[in-house]
Amino acid sequence: MDGTGPDDLTIIPLEDKLKSEKVREIIFALSTTMEGDTTNFFLYRKFQQYPVKFSTIARGVAIGDELEYADEVTLGRSLVDRQPFEKEAL
Q1: How many helices (H) and strands (E) does the chain have?
Q2: Dihedrals φ, ψ of 24, to 5°?
Q3: Mean pLDDT by 10 residues, the chain (90 residues)
Q4: What is this structure's pTM?
């Protein structure tokens, strides 16, 4: 997207590391845009043959932001990625 394709990504060193080292998890921390989500999915599909856990950083409404200014996608992801409310977290 936006003129950037798979050949423009520097993923060979990451794949080499997956082949030679004991990587337990890959955490995707790309932009929360269509391009970032597409890249996350591309990398997941490319590396899913390796015994590694895949995750992304949580997304949602930032502390201090007003809900009335949150867009539908951000608010939706906040609901999907919600965490249980626990007394210990207070």
Answers
A1: 3, 2
A2: -95, -30
A3: 72 90 86 83 91 85 79 85 68
A4: 0.67
